[in-house]
Design goal:
The protein has 288 residues and is mainly α. Helix content is 81%, strand content 0%. It contains 12 helices and no strands.
């Protein structure tokens, strides 16, 4: 474990210097890039801590990030005051789920949100009383936020519990997809066509990245090739889907800020790819 930490030190240092240069020089980075860089640096920094100090530290930092993302989501959607018990239930589901990640209890982790939290949330919303109209919508909104921003993101945490380097491979792959997606964006293309390009263009780069990181990740070459095509496709699907949600919530990319879509926009690339890649690795590698 500790013998691999210097590699993470160099990666974190590189991103830290890039972030410092961007802040000091104010070189006019586009708003989405300027927002994304600090979060990416945070991922690498916490990977370093999990590799050299404690995986549990990273898992609970990720839990805090899930809480902030969920709170941001709830602030942007149309929920009623009487839904407060349902919202509280969603917040309490975060430590409930992340505890099972930290303890390595896969069976409880995998059903914590889709079974227990999803059954308790409608009951908690109903406890709020008041007007019955809108209850179905409120339950759907709360469960959607809980599933995407807590359960899906939590798969990155469980992947880190098994292998920091597998999680690092996932984050690096998603970051490359996001960077190329930004370069490929054009107002002249339809959203669907842009998503198609974003799923095809990064694939050769990720196919090359997988074998390069194989000495650390331990993922066989055949599976790194499959993941090289699978990851950009899932990132494109996730971004395409969340973009529609952002449009409905009135999030403007030119005006991203904490509480106004910044965290949701940053995490959207992970929402589809994290659980599917996690289960792919678990099934085919029988890793954990």
């Amino acid at each position: 474990m500790f013998s691999q930490a210097p590699d993470l030190v160099l990666l974190s240092l590189f991103l830290g210097l890039s972030l410092l240069a961007a802040v000091r020089n104010r070189i006019g980075l586009p708003n989405p890039v300027a927002i994304y860089l600090p979060y990416l640096w945070t991922f690498f920094l916490v990977f370093l801590l999990s590799q050299s100090v404690s995986v549990g530290l990273w898992i609970w930092v990720l839990a805090i990030l899930s809480f902030l993302a969920l709170r941001e989501f709830f602030s942007l959607v149309d929920l009623r005051l009487q839904d407060r018990w349902g919202i509280l239930t969603a917040y309490l589901a975060i430590p409930f789920m992340y505890y099972f990640i930290q303890s390595g209890w896969y069976g409880m982790f995998i059903i914590s949100v889709p079974v227990y939290a999803f059954l308790v949330t409608p009951f908690a919303v109903a406890l709020g009383g008041g007007e019955a109209k809108g209850t179905v919508l409120s339950v759907g909104i709360i469960d959607l936020g809980l599933f995407l921003l807590v359960y899906c993101v939590g798969h990155v945490g469980y992947l880190t519990y098994y292998s920091t380097w597998m999680a690092l491979f996932l984050v690096v792959s998603v970051a490359l997809c996001d960077f190329l997606a930004y370069l490929l964006k054009s107002r002249d293309r339809s959203a669907l066509r842009s998503a198609l390009l974003q799923s095809l263009v990064p694939a050769p780069l990720l196919v090359a990245l997988g074998p390069a990181m194989a000495p650390w990740t331990g993922i066989p070459t055949t599976h790194t090739i499959v993941l090289g095509f699978l990851i950009p496709t899932l990132v494109a699907i996730g971004c395409f889907t969340i973009d529609r949600l952002e449009a409905d919530m009135g999030i403007e990319r030119s005006r991203l800020a904490p509480g106004r879509g910044e965290i949701l926009n940053t995490l959207k690339s992970y929402l589809y790819v994290s659980p599917i890649v996690f289960h792919y690795l678990r099934y085919f590698l029988e890793a954990f």
